[in-house]
Amino acid sequence: MAKMLGFILSKSSGATSLSLCHKSASILQRREMCLGVLPDFVDGSSDAFTRNSQLMQELLTQLHSNIDKVLAGGSPEAVERNRSRNKLLPRERIERLIDPGSSFLELSQLAGHDLYEDSLPSGGIITGIGPVHGRLCMIVANDPTVKGGTYHPITVKKHLRAQEIASQCKLPCLYLVDSGGAFLPKQAEVFPDKENFGRIFYNEAIMSAQGIPQIALVLGSCTGGGAYIPAMADESVMVKGHGAIFLAGPPLVKA
């Protein structure tokens, strides 16, 4: 699959995001050469420094604990159910997608933390930047172990922020779709506004028109908004035996 994506990305025109990144890095290096070194007046032996250091260490410990929790994804039962279907977890998918030995810059890792009554690790979606065949891409991956990969208001906000960064930096978008669409109990907060769920599809169309590749990988049963994303992408790849897109199941159609 990674080879297929590399071929698709190679067809897109314009300067690559990797070359733009290297150009920005060289500019930063030149600026660093012009900056002086500020003198250090911090007294590392003072009581105030010790108190601040201890407080910062406590905060860092709490931060790392919260990050460890969200990295685990959904509930153990949901994770086991996902594995029983012979499916990878979203971060495992990303790890296999990006270039070997490269790093993935994850964005908004703690989105949704303590925001809702129910746990919503990482807002139910993983976003970040990583290289695929040497080209930096924005990767957006639904987490099916968190509420079936459905979109809560914070999920939408996180997805839109990833698209905004991709648009500004001209990064190809890779959507790893495994989503049940909007979280219906909160649909009144997901749909109505200009900057809500529908904006995702608008952004897809705009970036596609600007020549920024929009590529979707359908990795599970995707309904509603989860079906629109691959339908509007420039290229869609569906995993045989797992990938499916449809607007709604029989009960909702009947209703």
TrEMBL record:
The keyword Nucleotide-binding applies. Residues 56-255 form the CoA carboxyltransferase N-terminal domain. The keyword ATP-binding applies. GO terms for cellular component: methylcrotonoyl-CoA carboxylase complex; mitochondrion. It comes from the Eukaryota. GO terms for molecular function: ATP binding; methylcrotonoyl-CoA carboxylase activity. Transmembrane segments: none annotated. It catalyses: 3-methylbut-2-enoyl-CoA + hydrogencarbonate + ATP = 3-methyl-(2E)-glutaconyl-CoA + ADP + phosphate + H(+). Its EC number is 6.4.1.4. Keywords: ATP-binding, Ligase, Nucleotide-binding. GO terms for biological process: L-leucine catabolic process. Pfam families: Carboxyl_trans. Pathway: Amino-acid degradation; L-leucine degradation; (S)-3-hydroxy-3-methylglutaryl-CoA from 3-isovaleryl-CoA: step 2/3. Residues 78-255 form the CoA carboxyltransferase C-terminal domain. InterPro entries: AcCoA_carboxyl_beta (IPR034733), ClpP/crotonase-like_dom_sf (IPR029045), COA_CT_C (IPR011763), COA_CT_N (IPR011762), MCCB/AccD1-like (IPR045190). PANTHER family: ACETYL, PROPIONYL, PYRUVATE, AND GLUTACONYL CARBOXYLASE-RELATED (PTHR22855), METHYLCROTONOYL-COA CARBOXYLASE BETA CHAIN, MITOCHONDRIAL (PTHR22855:SF13). Belongs to the AccD/PCCB family. This is methylcrotonoyl-CoA carboxylase.
